[in-house]
Amino acid sequence: MEPIISPWLIYVLDKLEHIQAIFILLALIPIFLKLITCMTQESAEVWTKRKGLYVIVFISFIIALAIPNRNTAIKMLVVNEITPQRIEQVKDVAGNFRDAIKGDIIEIIESVTEKEEQ
Questions:
Q1: Do residues 77 and 9 touch, judged by C-beta distance below 8 A?
Q2: For the segment 1-33, what is each residue's pLDDT rounded down to a tens digit?
Q3: Structural domain boundaries of the chain?
């Protein structure tokens, strides 16, 4: 029987914050390096020529913002699995369960009433 939720999904959900932190670091490290090396005019010119670095910083920030935290990812997963058909299934099972409980309670009341009458 195939599991409803893959164990790997649980693992990835638990690691989302770490992945997000890595992308934040990828975005921040070049900024700090630029601040440190901009002490001289030559290093400032080198940084202005490296447009790829700015692209990496921008993409890293976008990815860091787009990665949901663990709780949000779990909510998204749960909401994705709720469908009108599953709600109807729950209603049917709950109705059957209610009817069974009601029948058991009626039987108990009748047996207690019979014992009191004897």
A1: yes
A2: 455 666 667 777 778 888 888 888 888 887 777
A3: 1-69, 83-118
